Amino acid sequence: MPIVVERIAIAGENPVPSPVATYQRSPAGQSLWLASGHIADFQSCVPTNTLDARALLGNRPGATNVEGEGFIAVEVCNDVDTHMDVVVCSADGSVHTTVQMFQTEDDVVWFSARDAKRIVDASGEVSYIFAAILSSAIRHEPLNAWTICVDSKGALKARVKLSSHLEWLADAPRLRTEAVHWKTGDGTRPSGLVEKYIAPRENSKLIFKGGCYQIICHTFGTGASSSPGYLVISPNYRGSRGRGHEFAHAANLGGPLAAWGATKSKTRFKVAILGAGTTNWESQVMAALEQSTPWDHDAPEGSERKTSPVHSVAGVTTAILIIHGDKDDRVPVGQAIGFWRGLKRRAELVVSPREAHE
């Protein structure tokens, strides 16, 4: 059954709903009703839609809007950086970008903690105000509220720090953080974050992010798991946003990559921690919702078996901690139990009651 979006008048007696749009599934992002009459629907995590833009705010109809126009502030992701664009939707159907309000520079906007406004003063001058929670691991700046104001051409008018939270962290041991890029065998240049204390490197930690289309960027505190003498590497593998649809079209691979790295390398890692990860792709596609199945594409025969960590447990000496929720509807808990049974005494299994995938 499709999802139907309707508008209903709040004045008058017995208002009749008027259909606006229908969807085969619920939109993943915000649906904004603009002054121009447009319905702007941003779907940020659906594989068949664009992944590089998300709606922030559409200005409501009012005295500050140009008649017949609607304004949206959009976050556009480009690798580990983002910028905020003002997009104008006109009544004649045209859509165009006018102003760039903000560009990250060694910092990052904290998830959805952002908002934007279009302001017209008494003289008719237009400006845009962008407010967000920003942080920077590179500059050792914790999360705080900032506001940025630009004029109608995007020139900076003011940048003001509104809060001073976590000041005590200024005395915490300082991490050296930098974004890195490397070249893969097929010519792709993924990115990642490298963090270390200013001390000789003795050991390394490899941290795989989870979550479809998420990305590791310059957020302060990302290397909280680090300690003196350790190098922390957080790669943005295929499945991350900021590189377009083809690069991002991948499954949630944080857990599977941890299991795959431990079983393929056998002895390279001392410890691996696997959280809610798929270890047997053959059984996964039978028991949970997946984007593709072995029988509806032309994958080489046995490809699911070749990439399933459960088939490579022989000879593993890495100590592995497996954590899973018994109410996980995305990756069934049997994935953890089967992997643990295959590893036998080389692994510990912790099943959390009533816990889902998140």
UniProtKB/TrEMBL annotation:
Belongs to the peptidase S9C family. It holds the Pfam family Peptidase_S9. InterPro entries: AB_hydrolase_fold, Peptidase_S9_cat. This is Dipeptidyl-peptidase V. The keyword Hydrolase applies. It comes from the Eukaryota. GO terms for biological process: proteolysis. One of its GO terms (molecular function) is serine-type endopeptidase activity. It comes from Mycena alexandri. The lineage of its organism: Eukaryota, Fungi, Dikarya, Basidiomycota, Agaricomycotina. Keywords: Hydrolase. Residues 254-357 form the Peptidase S9 prolyl oligopeptidase catalytic domain.
